[in-house]
Specification:
single chain; 471 residues; alpha/beta
């Protein structure tokens, strides 16, 4: 964080100081909510959770070097006490962002937020110091913590914004007002909570409504609900996509033999070829979104194309591709899942697995409400239509819907199987995998299917060590 004295912070957040010998002492380190992340000069934010009360760690964090604690009650060590810790954290973030003068880029969408943010960060880092949301740190707590990690050198601040209801993004943009707003798509993620795609569009569109007149709304030309958001903003509109009228668009889209997308990037300043290191055609849209923002910020088409072609995966469990020594390829996409990302991952699996056996180890997609049965059934059917070699549906009721959809689509029989949990899937794969197979692992985060990918890779490591020691 930029250096601020405890007295300044208390004024910004409307708090009272307790047990602080010298209010002129500054916070020069990070602002954290996890006591394990404290470093000299930190400000520790004490939240009260369902299982853990951050106030209980106050003495420990100060002993570890924290300058003070932002708390809701006195804790016997230097503290700034406020009525509402979350509101105070947000107020501090807004103050810091206003002081910085960096360009704030906010992005949202039902699918691809984290991948697009990671691509954009790697592109903009080539132009100037950039701070961006780690992982999916995109809520009322994670977003201000990300903003507070910016320093005086920061020129671009990229903030991912999630929403689980109307008004959530409006609240987030109030904490960190963006100059550029990027809307990727409107899908069915969290549709059970919103009640329909139109309501999701209302929520996502709050981002473009927050933009200033001298800002830019970067919108997906290929998504009608996103394109329609142009009428909801006073900012200049820049369209990206594969549509002919998109300002930033892709032509000649294709997949390499390894399933990596390649295309010609067109911007108002020219065109250049891109071959991504990521897997799956769905990343073309993510790359175009990043390219559109980079163009808006003054990068040339050749600079953008080179940066995109060299960008990798920054966030864990999102299409992480690892090849074992025996030739088995493990695709760990187990961080989360919704119908759109499931379809994209299956298509990527098939593209990667040409001429090889392909396995789709899938679990339930959460928060689909009344659409749950139809959506799981549709994913199972798609696995058959794409000729995935074998579907392993993991879990309870929703997994049975996946398996039933596959069976009804193609009378798969032995080509689809329903197992109870991750361990059962691991046992099945250990007994049936053979060299050269490609395994996709994907489900909502709560299923914990990353354990399957981890086990398969650990098996390979143990086998490799055994071979070495036996020589």
């Amino acid at each position: 964080m930029i250096a601020l004295s405890l007295a300044e912070i208390a004024t910004v957040v409307g708090g009272q100081t307790y047990d602080i010998p010298d209010p002129a002492v500054s916070v020069t380190g990070s602002v954290v909510r996890d006591s394990r992340e404290v470093e000299p000069g930190s400000l520790f934010v004490a939240f009260v959770g369902e299982r853990v009360d951050g106030h209980d760690y106050a003495a420990d964090v100060v002993a570890a070097g924290a300058v003070a604690v932002l708390a809701s009650r006195p804790v016997g060590v230097p503290a700034i006490v406020v009525d509402d810790v979350q509101a105070a954290l947000g107020a501090l973030a807004r103050h810091v962002v206003e002081r910085l003068g960096a360009v704030t880029v906010a992005l949202t969408g039902s699918v691809g937020k984290t991948s697009s943010k990671d691509l954009l960060a790697q592109v903009l880092q080539r132009k100037a110091p950039t701070v961006f949301t780690p992982g999916s740190f995109n809520n009322e707590i994670g977003l201000p913590l990300t903003a507070l990690s910016a320093t005086d050198e920061t020129r671009f601040l990229i903030l991912e914004m999630g929403a689980r209801g109307i008004g959530h993004i409006q609240y987030l943009t109030g904490l960190t007002p963006p100059k550029i707003g990027l809307v990727l798509n409107v899908g069915t993620a969290h549709i059970g909570e919103f009640g329909g795609r139109e309501q999701i569009a209302v929520a996502k569109g709050e981002l473009v409504e927050s933009l200033p007149a001298d800002g830019a709304a970067v919108l997906n030309a290929d998504d009608p609900l996103v394109r329609a958001m142009a009428s909801r903003t006073k900012a200049r509109v820049l369209l990206f996509g594969e549509s002919d009228d998109a300002d930033v668009r892709a032509e000649n889209v294709r997949l390499t033999e390894n399933g990596q997308p390649a295309f010609t990037l067109h911007t108002p300043s020219g065109c250049s070829d891109v071959t991504l290191r990521l897997y799956g055609e769905h990343h073309v849209s993510n790359a175009l979104a990043a390219a559109a923002v980079a163009h808006e910020l003054g990068m040339s088409v050749d600079e953008i194309a080179l940066a995109l072609s060299e960008a990798g995966t920054l966030s864990r469990w999102r299409m992480e591709v690892t090849e074992r020594p025996d030739g088995v390829t493990v695709v760990n996409d187990a961080y989360n899942a919704n119908p759109e990302s499931m379809r994209a991952a299956l298509r990527a699996l098939v593209a990667m697995g040409k001429g090889r056996r392909t396995w789709a180890v899938l679990g339930h997609m959460a928060e689909l409400g009344d659409e749950g049965l139809a959506e799981h059934d549709a994913v199972g059917r798609l696995a058959v239509r794409l000729n995935v070699s074998k579907l392993v549906a993991v879990g309870g009721r929703e997994a049975s819907w996946l398996q039933l959809g596959a069976y009804n689509e193609g009378s798969w029989g032995e080509e689809s199987v329903h197992v109870s949990d991750a361990q059962a899937a691991i046992d099945l794969l250990r007994s049936e995998l053979r060299a050269g197979d490609v395994v996709l692992v994907k489900a909502s985060r709560s299923v914990g299917l990353e354990r399957v990918a981890t086990a398969l890779l650990d098996d390979a490591a143990v086998s490799s060590e055994g071979q070495v020691s036996g020589r």
